[in-house]
Each structure stands twice: as C-alpha cells, then as structure tokens.
Design a protein that fits this description.
With 535 residues, the chain is an alpha+beta fold. Among the domains are: 192 residues, no CATH class; 149 residues, no CATH class. 17% of the residues lie in helices and 23% in strands. The strands form 5 sheets. A 7-stranded mixed β-sheet has the order 2-1-4-3-5-6-7, sandwiched between helices. Strand 9 and strand 10 form a beta hairpin. The longest helix has 17 residues. It comes from Fusarium solani. Pfam families: HET. This is Heterokaryon incompatibility protein-domain-containing protein. InterPro entries: HET.
Length: 535
Amino acid sequence: MRLLNANTFQLEQFYDNDIPPYAILSHTWTKDEVTFQEFANLSWDDPRLEKTVGCCKQALQDDITYVWVDTFCIDKASSSELSEAINSMYKWYGDSTVCYAYLSDVHPISDDDVFSNSRWFKRGWTLQELLAPGCVKFFDSAWIIIGQKSAEKRLSKGFEPLVLRKRPGPDDDLSEKLSSITNISVAALRHEVNMDSISVAEKMSWAAERETTRSEDMAYSLLGIFSINMPLLYGEGGKRAFIRLQEEIISQNYDHTIFSWGFARGPTHGGIFATSPLDFAGGGSIVCRSIGRKSHYTVTNLGVQIQIPVLTVRNGVQYAFFNATRRSRAELVMSIPLYPAGGTGEDEDILVRDPCSMPVFVPDSWLGEATTRQLYLSKNPSIEVARNRRQYTLFVAKELTEAKYHPRELHPHAIFSSVDDSTLYFGPWAPGEKKLALVTYESPDSPTFHLKIMFDDDRSSCLLQRAEQDETLINELKPVDSGEVGWTLGNDWKEVINLGTLGDVSGKMEKLWPESIYCLLSLTPSEDPISPEWE
C-alpha cells in the first residue's frame, strides 16, 4: 500500500502489518486529477495538488503523518495493481484512522440544501467511502469542517475525532442527516449492525441513484460492500459486470432478496438478475425471511438452479415464492411471476421472469397451495418486453390498509400487494385473453360496489357499478373525466359511473403504472368477491 508522507510530501510503500495509521481522502474526481506517473514531477504548490495539500494539512492537525489519495497512490497503468486496489478499497477505507470527505461543490456560505445535493452523494465510489470508515469528517471547499459521522468501535484505536473549526449550521454529528440523504439507516452508518446482516436488496438500494463515469464501475464499486473479490474486465459493459457481481453474491450468500428488484421502474427484460443497481430502487425495506428448510441454489448454463415453492394460476403464470418479505410485514412472502422459457409444454422447468412484472407480496397462506419444485430461472436479459404481457398496477387509495382480497381467478389475475397495501396488480396475460377484471369493495358507511376494469394495449378504462342505490356513494364517487370508454360492456351492469380513462387527471387521484387509470376510492376490500360474467 502506497501512502503519502504529509511532512515530506513523498510516497512510501508499506506491506501488511507494517502499515502505519493513515488518513484517507474521499472526493469526486475532476478532469485534471494527478496520476501516479505525474506525481513525482510535481511540487506541493502545484494548483492540481491543492486538494491533496489540504488533506495533508488536516492530517497533521489530527496528528496523523500519512494520507492515502486514490488518484496517485495507485498506478492505474498497471491492470494488476488497479484490480488489487479496487478489490482492497473497502478494507483500506475501513482500516483508516479517519476519512476526510472533501465536498468541492459546498462552499463556506452554503446552506444545508447545498450539502444535501452535493455531487459527492451521487457518485458510485463514494458509497463505500461513506460506509467503510469508522469516522468520516466532512469538509467544504475551503477545508472548513461541516460535521462528521463516527462509529464507537472505530474510536478504540485511540483516535478521538477533533472538531477543529466550527461553522454555523448543522450539528457535528451528521448521522441523522446523512441517513435522510442516502436512505441508509443510522445503525448501518455507525457500524451498530454487521454489514453482512443487511439484506442484499437493501444494500443495492443504497446505490440505486448513484452513477459512475465508466459503466462497469457501478458494479466494481460495490465489491467491498458485499465482501466480494472478482477480476475486473473493463470493456465487458455495465450490465454484464453487474450480472457477474450478482452471480458472485449468490455463490457466497443465501439471500433471496437479490431477486427482489423492479419496484420503481418495472423490469425491462426476462432475466432473473437485475442489470443495474437502479433496478433495486424502492427495495430498501426488503428483508430475508424463512419459509422452510434452506436449499442451495447455484448459477448454471441454464440459469439459476433453485428448489422453491411454486403456485400455478390461470394463464399459465407460475408464482415462485422466495425467502423474502417486507421489514414491517413478516406475514407476507415475496413472489415473482414466471413463465416457461419455451412456451407452454416446452422446457417447463426453465422459467423466465415475466417482462414488466414486478415482485408482489402475498400472504404466506398461499404457500399451502404451492408445490416445491426444482427450477432453472433464466438469467438471459435479452428477452424483449411484449405489450400484450404487461402488468398493470392500480393504486386504489392511499387510505386503504388491510387488503386481504386476492381474486386469483380473474382475467387477468389480480393481486393486492404493496408497501402500503394499497396496490392491486393486474396481469400479465396471454395474447387473445379477455383483458377485463372485476374488483368488489364494501364500506361500513356505504353499500357494496364493484370496479370493472378493462384494458387493451393502448387504452385503459375504469368503471364502477353500484350494488344498490345510495346517495352517500353517489356523492363520494364523482366522475373525474368525461372521456369515452370505448368498449361495449354487455351483461346487465347498471348504475355505472365512469371514473376516468387515459389522460392527465389532477386532484386526489392515484395513477396506474405504466398506463393511466384513476380511482377516487378509500374503502375496504370485500372478503367475498363475486365472480364476473364474461361477454
């Protein structure tokens, strides 16, 4: 490990147990960063080394002789040294006495919003630089301290972080603020929990909104967070690098939350692996749970080989149940809709994740109807999204709480499941099927009513049938759009109120993803839904 002597401004080499206490710099790169080859020919007063000089001065004030700066302490011209350094980076930051986070875009007169929106919080590499060190001090562009986060166990080295200069604004302890900015728990920031005990999905969600200059680095920057070592293959592309990372995680961990992605933007392919940390956005509350005896799973040439409970519903959709749930809803189990890779009757044990279908959380009572099977979950990410296999999501009402209605026999089948249990998922369905669903609700203060929802590839509409005449219901449910429905309903549906069709509707509406259906309802689901009569 190369370290810069802050007194002599010379690089020195150390090995293993001979490595002295050191401070480490965390920063965002600019175009004129100094390389290892250039450093020997520059003096300390070179403008390009201003950031490094500030780091050295701060270290000496903290009674630390050595500093590590990633720009020139690594010979990036050597692929082997670069690979070793990136695989060791998390440990190097974790072993540092203190980490200086230098925020060049936060100036002395900046307010809290500027700090929160700093580029430092958007970069991929700075995630591990925030997590690994026990103590991180944050400085603005003038090297005036903003505050710090520290872990008690890291202070046992005898180093007590000093607040050298005060600035008006936030308190010295930034842990709560950092948590609100990054969505990382205070416990994780302060090392109060073991990083290995945090689910894969939660850790991936921390990186969801971050970026790197080279696409492969989005995966490589996460190696230490998952305790993974793997060769770097620049040129393989970001998607391949991220899939390779997930394969390595699977080989060393039993954690089904690695499959819980697609909540924020929806899946874009039929592979079981995500292609970017962005796919894990919205998955921070997904945790592991046990639904029976553990069975190993591994990556093969056919996909991920796994033994898992599966429930087949109408249309040939197979719901696989994984050992994952939401942190606050342990009675739910995560399920992913799957289809045979070669179509019905072909390769029925090789399944693909349905494009545009996100994971859903269902009551664990569904497990009683499932059959444990040996499956291969395809990892091929090249399957295109088909419009006729879309999954529609109806956000029924923000106030809806206990959603226990699961009409699996509808066309398309529907499942209540969401962070707030206010979401009804429709689809996917096979070509040629009737794209019609019926949802029944009742309220203590109003009569039972039914939602009749119809879909096609380009338009969607939502209508409501009142089960009996009641002025209360009429007053509560107002038409929100006068657009034409465009379908012949048939049957003897009466007292139908048009709740809206495609289009922008303002107000207290909830939106269908990826199409647009709106519903101004906040009632309770019925336990005994009626069966629809098809045209």
